[in-house]
Amino acid sequence: MSVVRAPGWMPHLWIRPESDEPVHGMMLRLAASNGLPRLRSFETMVGVRTHQVRLGDRLDALAKVLRCDVSDLQDRCYRRTSAKMRTFRGQTLGTVKDIHTRIRRVCPLCLSERPFHRFWWDFGFVATCPTHGRHLVSECSCGRPLSWDDVELHKCRMCEDGSVHRLTFDLADPDLVSLDRLLLSKFGVGNADAAPVLDELSPRDAFEVAGRVGALDALGYRTKWVEPEDCGEANAVRARGYRILVEGRLPEILDRVFAEFMVTRERTEEGKLPLPRIDNAYGWFVHWFRFRKDEDFSPTLARIIVANAEAKFRLTADNYPKTARSGGTINLSEAAAMARCRPRNLRRLLAKEGLIRPKIVKGSPVRIERSVAERIAHDLADAIGQADLSSLTGLGSECVKTLVRAGSLPCWLRGGGAEAHRFLFRRREVVEWMHRLIPEAPAVARAPDGSLTLARWPYERKISVKRMIDMLAHGDLAVHGLLNGKRDFASALTRAPG
Ligand SMILES: [Zn+2]
Ligand SMILES: [Zn+2]
User: Fold this and answer.
1) Which of 2, 148, 346, 412 is a good FRET partner for 310, with 20 to 30 A between their CA atoms?
2) Domains in the chain: how many in total?
3) Which Pfam families does this entry report, sorted A to Z (predicted)?
């Protein structure tokens, strides 16, 4: 890796980060707006490499160039969790297939509206722009590939007058667009319709499941694993799988696959027909599901398979043990498996809501309504830990800690204690609390002179954050603007003291 020394040069023109603009996209835009023909020259002049900021390194240097706070850049880059895994906005991504760092893709229509790079254009599992319903493009109008050596967003660096705006391109398959919309909603980009099974999965897992279900429909009963690529155009297969899941037609597909198994099964050497079991009746699909860890991977998919299999043959106790057979209540460990938490933690949550006695009573096993377990599983999936509160509220981590300790923030499950459980908060409750404190105010693009964000205010004023919260609660601190209309502490503006 080359070491670059910051020579202290500051570009004359700087830019304001756009929402959904990643730090590496900002590097391009900075280079272009300062009239530099090569990204490389710009990197050398400011002493920051794009590959560094993309992984969250040297953000301070980029923040200086942008005249902004490092915290404004933190959810705009990848976080390294292992050699091959990254996270972005809390979602796990693999470096091999999920993130493009060489190929650059764009939606020309998005670019026409606002010329900046959207972070999700880099995701391998996204094929289209959900806003414009078109495929992303990765080539300039001159036919050369777009890359991260270019500077201008709309063209490659090799030609004079190429432009992606000159390309003609067709509307994408609406189901593929809806799948992309669903995957992106997991990153907080736009909203998507509910999709059973896919809703409970991470973006990369949801992408995989859509492909597997599409492949199952396309090729029917097979013993050998089938990849979406085996069935023709992989994206079309995924779109097909997405549609099946949204319409709740997977049971229908499983019926058909089972029927194919029954007519194609071959006699054993003793001349007997093999009986249907979970391992053979649905071919590769159940083997693949086992490889992905069955019901721990997708409880909903496990429920669909169990419901389908139960009606056809006898399931043994160790087939999906955590997935309830038909019936209204489940036991504590089944419910904990559904909520993906430890039984003792689920017990604490249930006790907190008055649903079970807090003390264990010998000989009276806890039975829980399935609907209650599902609701808690849903709440847990949306719950956040203390570490996430900073990015949600815009307050520094020390301030968050103070407020949690003082009990000012709505806390769902207090942490610490003998079990060293971590604190859990319901995202919705924290947002409601924040909105009660921060009144509506006009959206502004930049902070006017003499104003300050609420996140900075206690420092400047030299009072505790707790005191500021009390003042907000009593209406003693006016908010007269919201940066980009965002209603959090890092965006709400108040008058600077003094
Ligand atoms: Zn677009
Ligand atoms: Zn070109």
Assistant:
1) 346
2) 4
3) TniQ
